Structures are given as structure tokens and as C-alpha cells.
Hints:
The structure is a homodimer.
Chain A (H helix, E strand, L loop, with lengths): L20 H8 L3 E5 L2 E4 L1 H20 L3 E2 L5 E3 H7 L1 H4 L5 E4 L5 E4 L4 H11 L8 E10 L14 E11 L2 H21 L4 E5 L9 E8 L5 E6 H5 L14 H8 L3 E3 L5 H5 L5 E16 L1 H6 L2 E3 L5 E3 L1 E8 H11 L1 E2 L2 E2 L10 E5 L5 H14 L3 E4 L5 H11 L3 E5 L1 H5 L2 E6 L5 E5 H8 L2
Parallel strand pairs in A: 3-7, 19-20, 19-21
Antiparallel strand pairs in A: 1-2, 4-6, 5-6, 7-8, 8-16, 9-10, 10-13, 11-12, 11-13, 13-16, 14-15, 17-18, 21-22, 22-23
Subcellular location (chains A, B): Cytoplasm
Family (chains A, B): Belongs to the class-II aminoacyl-tRNA synthetase family. ProS type 2 subfamily.
Protein name (chains A, B): Proline--tRNA ligase
Amino acid sequence: MRLSAYFLPTLKENPTEAQIVSHRLMLRAGMIRQTAAGIYTWLPLGWRVLQKVEQIVREEQDRAGAQELLMPTIQAAELWKESGRYDDYGKEMLRITDRHDREMLFGPTNEEMITAIFRDNVKSYRELPKILYHIQWKFRDEVRPRFGVMRGREFLMKDAYSFDLDPAAARRSYNRMFIAYMKTFARMGLKAIPMRADTGPIGGDLSHEFHILAETGESAVFVHRDFIESDWQNRDVDYDGDLQPLVDELTGKYAVTEEKHDPAAAAALGDALVSARGIEVGHIFNFGTKYSKAMNAVVVGPGGEPVTVEMGSYGVGVSRLVGALIEAFHDDAGIIWPEAVAPFKVGLINLKKNEPHCDAACETLYRALGGEVLYDDRDERAGVKFADMDLIGLPWQIIVGPKGIARGIVELKSRKTGERQELPLEAVIERFRA
Amino acid sequence: MRLSAYFLPTLKENPTEAQIVSHRLMLRAGMIRQTAAGIYTWLPLGWRVLQKVEQIVREEQDRAGAQELLMPTIQAAELWKESGRYDDYGKEMLRITDRHDREMLFGPTNEEMITAIFRDNVKSYRELPKILYHIQWKFRDEVRPRFGVMRGREFLMKDAYSFDLDPAAARRSYNRMFIAYMKTFARMGLKAIPMRADTGPIGGDLSHEFHILAETGESAVFVHRDFIESDWQNRDVDYDGDLQPLVDELTGKYAVTEEKHDPAAAAALGDALVSARGIEVGHIFNFGTKYSKAMNAVVVGPGGEPVTVEMGSYGVGVSRLVGALIEAFHDDAGIIWPEAVAPFKVGLINLKKNEPHCDAACETLYRALGGEVLYDDRDERAGVKFADMDLIGLPWQIIVGPKGIARGIVELKSRKTGERQELPLEAVIERFRA
């Protein structure tokens, strides 16, 4: 993409409405714009990141054996009356009356709807287990939306739901999602730490939150040092094998949010205790028959008997992750994207637009590098170009100036380390060829 | 995907609520389920088709120079009061009041929102032209939703918006979208015919509808035979060149819906006139300054003067296209997917599950063919398997039976032609290798 044509409205000044760094940087880098309180448009640069994050979530769900479908945003209130949550949910639920005066709502989550779909379409134990997921926009009418996409009202969530014949099988589904989450966050360059959690309004008795560590995190967390230093995610996982030992290992060490912190237990860890800040990016629940019983999701069991299915639900805040990634990866100059989720892999800076050799070298690079390059072909000062490129945080910058190109040399800069090296044009092409 | 594990609830009987063939077949093939009037869940098989259709639309928008972003579903009513459409829109608009008693709505279209985004972020003629698009769920509260996804309430639309400095440039943007639409539909195997159209509530004076021909189409259409027999879409198009001659050629021949039909003009065509049935799958508008004037979308022109930008909007019904494709491609046994949008390219039928040679051959094929194969590994009668595979309409069926496999032979069947051929196992693998 050529920056001269790209819709990338960067801002030089910090927007006053943004209280946290990810919100500030998403506005400044032209990733999002607010269109109503807590509701955002994702501009092209932000949309590219959101799509990459979404695709990683999708691939890891698929790998773990979950099947994707898509439920609608608008739901009938009757479903929520069946589970008893319609009245409980309170003002966070966006309630709607349609033209025929039917009570509807914008889904804040989908336990009820997926249970109804399952109930109407699955009849036999032979069709179990099933893990079904979708990646869909949700709405929670927060009383004070803030922190940009970290606590917006309309947000993109991946929510998966498991259906099993008995608690042991349900635990296997839970373990699959547990491991899939660890892998998902690791692929984005994030160190996610599973923490025992309350089940809250979702229900059930087994639940973990996944927090990533960031200095600007919203929660105080206390974790065993091994979580930070270990590199477990490089291990191969066989999803059809027994995942319990790995889950036990990953849940066997101290890792809690402030609410669950036990100073006495923590003190016993001595130097192994790390206190840090965390951002919740995922939450998984095993809630047994809470919804299947209320909504009559029953299959015929192996002996012909009716069995109320065991369920769990598994959420990742996909749009929230984009903010969380920036909280984890930034410096004073701007964002520092991990390669897996960077909107473009390479930023190409032409220091002397309209100088024939610079232009020719840049065109050669632009064509060779394909869709993962953003070419700053604007007629702007070098300082403006450097600042914008650091702000939007592409992992690599290729800098083409008249002196270097006279020798056939361009500069390659790592956004993360700031390290620069001079390389022949051909070597850079070879390094990044599409 | 193994069918024994796949969430594919096919139906043997025709659902009584479905009046048209695409609705019937989408329900029977386990592609969708209704969750409220005119609101559907896309089950895994349907979701795969919807994603493929969406991806073709996206690629052709990108190729034509449009840039993707994502606007939210929920909009503030104020935007629509600025354009004057809030009161005009009537009961089709799903109106919502949030917890702070602010008037909101579920977007039925996005002219107002994109104009506000443009106005707030683009200041100079140097940033033009711009074509921005998104693929997002819309809601229109139809009084009588029907025909499944063809006239639902929550539906997926691709809507693009162009911004230009003057009418000549706006016409160039219009032409880009016009050609992009022809290519989009052609890639799906559809013959789309552009027809002069009324602009209706969107406004403006230049508009085309794109109709595909299907015996079960909703509208009577009258078109010059050349549209049906020509094969223009195989021509290369240079989007940076002058598209007007091609657009003139494609709009120079008779093609109208019933409302615009002129029997006298049509009669002059003689044998060249074809009367047929059409389904609208796209609609494009050039509406000048209707929204930019009302909402003050002004840039600084080349001479420093303020210029109210020229706009157009361009819609494709993405979810509707899935229904339209089935209307165009089906027979008595079920759907006949064109390869580009088929949920899987190949269906693999094991005629004798648990027979070691059949099982082994199927496993070999399943592993070799990758993600585009659906393997019917169920312990079911051959008749059930054939019927289900014809119903869901994958383009190719590979049939593995004990007699053939004893000779190393499998059967390859084309869903479209019904043609069958016997081939060595290795030849089939070579033919479809992922």
C-alpha cells in the first residue's frame, strides 16, 4: 500500500479523551475513531490488525477441534427468559423492541442461543463431543465506557461452547480450550498466564482467566516466576491425547489476581513470587448443566436414556486483544507490533521523493515485497516520515536515501531494538520477498 | 473434515416454512437455522460458503482500489438527523434507546457514518480520491421477512463509499465499482447483468442494479441476448486506465427490470430480446453532494477554496448472494456449488465403513486432500450417503467401494454433470492434491 493513497489519519498530539496508552496510540496511529460513546470504527490500519488477531484465534480454535459457525447479533428475549437471565442481566443488556413490539436484545454473549441450536439439532450421544464457536460483535451497555477498545460497548468476541456426555468428557473439552488459549496468545507474542477465577454470572465451578502482563495492566496479579521464564508453548501438543498433565503443570503454580491473592501462600514462594500488572484477555468456564437443564438440551445416551449435556463456554476478547497488545508492546515513540499481528510487516521510507534513484529503488522494493509493505511515498520531511513510521510500529523499516542508494545500499531498522544495518538493495529484497 | 464429527444437521423432509428453493435447500443442507423471524444462525457448512463469498467480494474491492475498514453496527441517531433521513426511514429502521436514554439504531446502511468519518479526518483535495468499504451486518426491520437469507432482517452487506473532488472523478470511481461488481459475480460463476435503476431513498441521478438470471428469480427482466452469450469478464482490466468504454459497452444494450421495461424499444430488438427472471445482488449509486452538503464534508481544493466532495455508494448483498447462488445452481437432488464458493471442493464417500481396504483408501485420500475435503465416514447406508452428498452439492464426489478398491480403483463423480469415471487412487490424489 502507498501511504499517499492510504486512509491513515495519524495525529501529532495526544487526544485528551484517552487515559491509557493503547487508546492514545490507537487514535494517534489512525487505527480507530469513536463514532458514539464506547463504539468505534476500525480504520484500515486497525482493521488489518484486528483481522490478523481474529485469524490467529480462528486457526487455534480449529486446530483444537472447535467448529466455526456464526450466530446473529440480535436475539429474541424469550431465549433469555428460558435460562432466567433476562431479568438478571440488568442494564448492561441492550434491550430492543422491534416493529411488531417483540422484545429483542443485542447479544452480550450466546450461552442461551447456542444451547437452543444444540437442543434443536443434536439428538444422540453419538454426535458428541462438540465444540462450536463464533467470532461475532457483542454489545454490553457499560455505564462508563472507557479505555478505547479495552472497555467499549460494541466489541468483538470469540466465544466457544462445548457439549459433552459426562463431566469427564467436559473436562477434556475444557482442557482443549485451555491449551488452545495458551497457544493463541503465544502466537501473538504474548505471555498469557492462566489464573483461577470466579465464575460469576456465567455459573459453574471451574474457571480460569488468562492474563497477559503489561506495566499498564488493569489488575494487580501475583504469579510464580516460572510462568514468566518458562517457554512451554514451544512444546508440541496432541489434542487427541491426554492434556491433563500439561494443564495440571500450567495450573499447579501460584497465579492469582488481587481478589484471590493469599499473602501467606504467596510468602512461601519467596523470591519465586512476582507481583505485576495484568490484562484479562480470555476467560473459560465449565458450568455443567446450568443451561442445558434450564433449556432442556438432552440427548439419547448409549443405553437409550435421556442425558442432559455437560457444557462449558470459552471467551476471548478479540478487539480487546488489540488494545492489550499495544499495552504490552510500545515505547515513547509509538507501537511496536509483534510480527504475527503487525498491520504490515515492513515500512518503506523514501527519504527523497522525486529523486530518480530513490524513487526507482523504492518502486523496485515495493513491487518485490508484495502486500505486506507500506510505502511512505509522500512528499514530506524525513522527520515526519520517521515519526509516523515509529508511531504505527511496523516491525521493520527500510530507509532509502540518496547517499546510500548511490552505493546501492539501503538501511534496515528494527522497530523493536532500534538496531540499524546497511544492506545492499538485493539483500533486503531477498530478506523480505513476498 | 470428518462428517461423523461435523455439525451438519441435514433434513430429509422439506421444511414447510420455506417457500423458495434456496431457503428449503439451505435448511435441508444444514447451512442455516432461523433463531428469530428473519434472523439466522449460519451453521458450519453455510458459514464456509458465506466466508468464501465474502472473500471474493473483498479481493475484488481491494483490486479496484477500495480500502477496507469496519464501521460498527450500532449508530447514534444524531448522524441520521444531520442528513434528514432519521424521520424518513420509517419502521424499517431498528431504533434503540440505550441506558442513558440516548437514541441509537442498528445501521441499515452507512452513508451518514462514513460521511462523518471522512469529514473529520480528510482535509485536502490531495487525499482524494478515496473509496472506503466495509463488510458488516446490517438490520432492516422488514414487516414480513421471508425467503430465508434472501429477505432477512439481519443480513451481511458489503457497502463501499467513494469521495471525489468533482463529478468527472466521481464517475471514474463509479466505473471502478461497476467493473469490480461484474468481476465479483463472474468469479462466483454468476452471469450478472447491469440494469439502469431508480435511485430511490439513497438519492442521486446515476444508478445501476446488478441482476443474476435464475428461473426462480423474484423480478421479471428483459435483456439483450449479448449479455447472456458474451464472455466479457475474461478480458483484462486496468483499473488505472479509462474504464468508460467498457462501461459504455456493458450499459449500451437493452437490460431492464419490469418497472423500466419499454415494450416498444424491446420489440425493436426482435430475436435478440430475452425475457427472464432476475435476482438483484448489487446496487450502485452516484449521488453527488447529497450527503456531503447536508453534513458539511468539505476539503480544501487546489486553489485553497472549499470543495464539497462528490460521493457514491456501492452495495453487494453478501448473505443474499448465498441464496441467489443456490437459486441459480440446483437440481431436484440439491445444491450444485460452483467451485469458487463451494464449502468443500470434494466429498469423499466411504461405501463400506469398517471394511479395512475401504477405510485405508479413504484415510489416504483424506490426508492427501487437505482442508477442502469432507469425508463421509459415517456407518450409514450408501443411499443415505449419496443423498446427503448430492443435497449439500460439493462439486466433486470421490466414491470408494470394496469392489473398486480391490482393483485400486475409485469413482469420481461430477455433481454438476453427473458424469462418473473410474480412476486409480493415485490419479485422484494427483487431481485434487491440496
